[in-house]
Amino acid sequence: MRPQDTETLAQLVADAAGTRGSGLTYDQLRDRSIDEETGYQPSSNTLNRIALGADVKINQKLIRAVAAGLGLPLPRVQAAAARQYIGYDVVDPGLGGGGDDDEVIRVAERRGTTPGDGTGVEEFVRRSRRESPPDQG
Known about the structure:
Layout: H1 9-16, H2 26-32, H3 44-51, H4 60-70, H5 74-85, E1 88-91, E2 107-110, H6 121-131
Antiparallel strand pairs: 1-2
Helix pairs in contact: 1-3, 2-3, 2-4, 4-5
């Protein structure tokens, strides 16, 4: 299992700033954390509360801003937030195309379950593949 498969948003932020961090202050992290879509910028206090594992209002613009500030891919930060705040893990159910295409499948699941536990993930993927029109390349 890769470290990013278990990390939380609190860990990502704490590893970047504050006393545990890599040298940034929360003010410096705030200055780097700007959502490009909306211009939203979380406060230093919000970033500190995230690092401490406190409850904060999670929304898309906050997660995009934190990803930008940390310099990490958005999907990694989204998965860490989902893991921490709603108890879901983002996993690869092993249903990828396996061919030359670029198909990647990710599933959010409750902890303690697997995609094959009667969730219908496999059937959904099969139907989607049958119903998807061919690329119009």
